[in-house]
Specification:
By secondary structure, the chain is an alpha+beta fold. It folds into two domains: 3-195 and 379-465, Zn peptidases (Aminopeptidase); 197-376, Alpha-Beta Plaits. The protein has helices spanning 3-29, 48-63, 126-146, 167-175, 275-285, 291-304, 352-365, 386-399, 448-465, and strands at 67-70, 76-80, 84-93, 111-113, 116-118, 152-159, 181-184, 187-188, 192-195, 197-204, 212-217, 223-224, 227-233, 245-249, 254-260, 264-265, 317-318, 322-323, 325-334, 337-346, 369-376, 379-380, 406-408, 420-422, 425-426, 445-447. The strands form seven sheets. The chain has an eight-stranded antiparallel β-sheet. α5 packs across α6 and α8 (386-399) crosses α9 (448-465). The two termini are 19 Å apart.
Length: 470
Amino acid sequence: MADEQLKREAHEFVERIWEEAVKDIETLVAIRSVEDMEHAEPGKPYGPAPYEALQTAVDIAARMGMDAHNCDGHIGYADIAGASPKQIAMIGHTDIVPEGSGWTYDPFKVTRKDGYLIGRGVLDDKGPTVLALYAARFFAEKAEAEGTPNPYTIRVIIGNNEETEMRDVDWYLENFEQPEFLFTPDADFPLICGEKGGYSAYIESGRISDVIVDFDGGTVGNAVAGEATAVVRADAASLPAAERIDVEPAGEGLAKLTAHGIGCHASTPEGSINAIGLIVEYLLANDLCSEAERRFLEFEHLVFASYDGSTLGIKSEDQRLGALTCIGGTMRTKDGQFVQTIDSRYPESITGEQITATVGALAEKYGAKLTCDLDMVPSYQSPDSAPIQTLVDTYNEFTGRNEQAYCIGGGTYARHFKCSGAFGPNDPLDPMPEWVGAEHSADEGFSEAQFKRALEIYIVSLGRLMKLGF
């Protein structure tokens, strides 16, 4: 099939199926598929709602005529068999982060407004997962119409635990062979070929809760907290006003502080304002803490005083992956202790072990203990490889641009595979209006026009990948 014919047929296909695709996105967004380990059970390893979303996506694939499987709740996949069993694959995910606060629209009902779809998971990653299924469907219809199988088998892997620990893909790689090439539609265009290391840990104070009755900040560890609250033993009327902090009575002798920050993904903290840090500074400035609490809050000050790790002693940068970032994600009181999570994205010039040693030693000076619970090493693929260049060239052809593959601080499924990239559908060169939220944010949404263009790019890219030798 000549490229011009493929592009024309891809466009016609996208226009024909688009309303059906939107309905499938709506169906998935309606499921609040946040990890729920409290209710996990055999066959539903991440909880009942993530299982429901996974099975729904598998059902969508089966409806399209794909050979679709739910792997005991761990992960799913759907195949279009080709002349060769070698696979060209795509992987998306149906789990989501919690909705958080600040929504204008119902997070679990897709709102169509001015050419945009709004809802939790629309962009990350239920909408793009639906695109991957329809891209595969295009080639299923093509093979059936022409009576000739595609050169390679197309597999769509349906993830279900991407937002937390990616145990789904660990399970997958223990049970299935690697595809020859894979891309994940869970990122930005033009294409991501390298990812910083992903590090997370939690820091526990001693049993010190006294003046601070309760502290509750952030929703997930891999995002800058947009909102945080603290209840303290104080007269609310006597506390001073502060920018971005509301003060109100919370019962006899108690005051509630609510901080309003600017949240964002942990990998891109520039321009954010961490609501936890706002409360920490307010408590310190107004002596709303016991001596033991102050000791921990002074350590907290170091966590929030920088996002490059400099105040924690872990600042680092290299030429290929760039600079380290480090943010405080969530803060809770638990059994009279404070528990703070941190999230770092680090380059090849430092290791997770070095981060643990340095920050752990610093925490001990303030009577706290650090425990690392995730350390994913950095990954990098050559931007000059044939499949990666094929995808980048296709994107540039559709947009009239001359962009290159690049590296990020975020972590995607691509880092787990031998030959892979993270490929759209978001395009930083075509920004959303201010009323449309980004992934992990309130009013998360995406442009229908950009979705449709991305699907055409995926179809044409797959067609060109079919011509490569693997």
